[in-house]
Amino acid sequence: MSKAISIFDTTLRDGTQGEGISLSADDKLKIAQKLDYLGVHYIEGGIPGSNSKDIEFFKRVQTLGLSAKITAFGSTRRKDSAAHTDANLQRIIESGAAAATLVGKSWDFHVHTALQTSLEENLAMIYDSVAFLKQSGLEVIFDAEHFFDGYKHNPEYAVSVMQKAAEAGADWLVMCDTNGGTMPHEVHGIITALSSNLTNVQLGIHTHNDCELAVANTLSAIQAGARQVQGTMNGYGERCGNANLCSVIPNLQLKLGFECLEEKALAQLSNVARYVSEVANVNMPVNQPYVGSAAFAHKGGIHVSAILRDSRTYEHIQPELVGNKQRVLVSDLAGQSNIVSKAQEMGIDFDATSPPAREVIDKIKNLEHQGYQFEGADASLELLIREANGQVRELFTFESFKILVEKTAGRSVVSEAFVKINIAGTSLYTAAEGNGPVNALDNALRKTLVQHFPSLKDMHLSDYKVRVLDEKDATAAKVRVLIESKNYEDSWSTVGVSENVIEASWEALVDSFRYALLEASPDEQILTPSIANPGLHNH
Amino acid sequence: MSKAISIFDTTLRDGTQGEGISLSADDKLKIAQKLDYLGVHYIEGGIPGSNSKDIEFFKRVQTLGLSAKITAFGSTRRKDSAAHTDANLQRIIESGAAAATLVGKSWDFHVHTALQTSLEENLAMIYDSVAFLKQSGLEVIFDAEHFFDGYKHNPEYAVSVMQKAAEAGADWLVMCDTNGGTMPHEVHGIITALSSNLTNVQLGIHTHNDCELAVANTLSAIQAGARQVQGTMNGYGERCGNANLCSVIPNLQLKLGFECLEEKALAQLSNVARYVSEVANVNMPVNQPYVGSAAFAHKGGIHVSAILRDSRTYEHIQPELVGNKQRVLVSDLAGQSNIVSKAQEMGIDFDATSPPAREVIDKIKNLEHQGYQFEGADASLELLIREANGQVRELFTFESFKILVEKTAGRSVVSEAFVKINIAGTSLYTAAEGNGPVNALDNALRKTLVQHFPSLKDMHLSDYKVRVLDEKDATAAKVRVLIESKNYEDSWSTVGVSENVIEASWEALVDSFRYALLEASPDEQILTPSIANPGLHNH
């Protein structure tokens, strides 16, 4: 039997059913590109019949030239109607996706309770829908919902559902543990029994993590003969999530000898997993298997000394195989190699032993020690590297800021910011109000800068995160602020750290504007002699 | 074969090896009480040979009268020495624990590389240490480190290690997958093979989650004949964590028919899991299986309508069996029953249909809709319920506050707060500095209040968390602040929400002081006629 496994990613569809996961069409396109780069075989983009965001995704993804097959999700036709008049099936075809994931019922209880139709009509719904999509030229992946529960209650019917989909020409028959309640030995037993009833079909597996067994159930299914895995990055998905591809793939490839991704792509798994968590705006748990920052971190004293003798003593794989790294220290210092490779990405040839390289590496280590974190703040990191290379021309300098927040019983809180910066030798003093102190600071700084650098008009803050670093120290603890900014073309992230939330926010804000100005025309300010709020100037 | 499973909790030992998990002796004692209430059979408290915090735990836990056996962790004696002179073994005995968890090597590679001794000496270390602890009257649980890796490389030696521990009288032989790299089918195969070489021993299983298979491997081991499970609450532990008891226990009991806990105790699992995450100061992932707040939350439209017809359609168990609840709405409104039961805890008989009950339920729903969250803010919730019952006597009222944050290039940032409150008809105006604006506010409010209510002297803030609620709205988004406060006896949590981080912090701060004053003597302020900062008063 072949060792090749087809990887079907449903982060953009089932993943977004998870609580707190919401992706715009832009976010989905960004993630699709990364998944394609990783080499997954199918990318399920969404439900074209459900909303305009998904329709936009399917339209725009066609222009990206991806290698992965794009697949659109939908249900079998409605009961007692024809497939070719079904609006949802029509939308799948119109989406332009090369493949359709068609979900149908395989548990008799659901046919009666949820669909409220007969077992025969459900079989007809499946046959008609698969056949119609096949006639329309699509590859069809048939997802049998609640297959394992269905098989346990009425094995004959569950098997007949699969047979019907196969007869109609489905390319893949996927067994879904929709409620996530099946045990690994049951998965193995049921698939083995099903296989004896079906020939010449390709089987797939789709599991949920309600019993913390989604990965184990997926492995069980593959060991029983399934050859497609449906799952999501970081295990996002409805309720407790789907099978986590970031664990399934290395288990299959490194432990069980199956082929999922190219070796080189597997070494990007941690990067892609972190990227997806950033775009989804969900913190990645430090202890996430394989790709989490603590997955190869050694804290115990005995462990550390043994690890230093031979890393096989306490590591089940080489972390580099999945793009992760060993950490034996308490502190989480960025490796030199990371910084050098980041510089290379920016087109700077950075010899790790040169004085500017040493300087910036020491500076970054020192900043990380203070609580800065550059994994989510690429623009701040780029500014540090360019600074060390003499590539940053400061177009404004900071002189001072003041924040006033005032609240009187029965009235709304008032927040004001007063910012003084220097542009080309002139002190400029501006005041602004805001919804809160940081918003007021942003408004004040922006007000002055836009007058001098009109390209900044298109820029706005798109994300703001606050993390208390040592929460046990209560209100005197350090705070880390991450800001994401956008213009029409680009987005970038910056970081600030301080015991003072206002100062940390200011740092991240200033870095964001400095980064935006890296590309500004040197003469831009000359084009805008008019100056805002002349009354507030302080020459 | 018996269906009874012995539950061995190592949250207090292996759990604290996890990154970001740090427990004081007080924290450990609180968690031990909850675990005992749940009915776990063993509580591993720590390593008495390692630090004074653990020694304090073992001393104080004896006064609590717990039913669970307390066990102390340590390694086999040092090579080439005697067990009775071994300082670590001595400390285990001195700890007063009823049981010892003794870890020994079972992988030949580790004996050579980490211990740097002979295979024979390692067997002697195991035999001598087990025998010495048994002679000292302790129950001995032998943890065979890296058992599965050891068995794969040298099965004869791994088996001889187990035989040696059994000969010396060990009560349990526990197979540890220390690096977490073993697959479920390997666990089953190796245990089946081992069992054929051992008779009359009780086997246990200790797994790690490096492949996201710790729960599956534990189930495999039990299905192969093991009868003790070592794991942690919420799966805390070194690197990717240990087997998560919050998933293992319901899987064994509700899915596979084993007996772990009393049914009534199992229905407290979600509460205890959340309590442990609060004490450990780690956010519980919403999608955590069985006990997470999204474990039975339904977002998909089709799912919700089916769930309303019959909850078995999309739920693998009744959530109440593990003390969790179904959530079918988009919003996360506190159920009436929660509020009524919370009131009962406070000794208030709250008929859900009475006008004050209706009023407080509506108010809480409204606040949750605005972003408040009371699961982590019990004191704010108690204040709302007592208010509705006319049980809150306000000892001070808010008049106004001002915050000034000032930063000039090259100088440190300065934060000042000006707070005006009214106590018994007198306006009191105070100023204070702080490390940041919230710290300044805390200092100013505290300065005035302590003068009038000296019992507040013992109170301090112990935790401060900031969460941006809709991060996509950047700096104009809402912010939720959670504050935990402590005095010598008690700790309590309060919440504030606003678009303005300062206002949200102020709300949570004020609630914290109001809660502290609930118990204050009504005449306390008369005892303290002296008034702080007379110059700042505003009569």
Automatic annotation (TrEMBL), chains A, B:
The keyword Amino-acid biosynthesis applies. It is an enzyme of class 2 (transferase). Pathway: Amino-acid biosynthesis; L-isoleucine biosynthesis; 2-oxobutanoate from pyruvate: step 1/3. It comes from Paenibacillus lacisoli. It catalyses: pyruvate + acetyl-CoA + H2O = (3R)-citramalate + CoA + H(+). It comes from the Bacteria. Keywords: Amino-acid biosynthesis, Branched-chain amino acid biosynthesis, Isoleucine biosynthesis, Transferase. It holds the Pfam family HCS_D2. Residues 5-267 form the Pyruvate carboxyltransferase domain. InterPro entries: 2-isopropylmalate_synth_dimer, AIPM/Hcit_synth_CS, Aldolase_TIM, Citramal_synthase, LeuA/HCS_post-cat, LeuA_allosteric_dom_sf, PYR_CT. The keyword Amino-acid biosynthesis applies. Coiled coil: none annotated. Belongs to the alpha-IPM synthase/homocitrate synthase family. This is Citramalate synthase. Its EC number is 2.3.3.21.
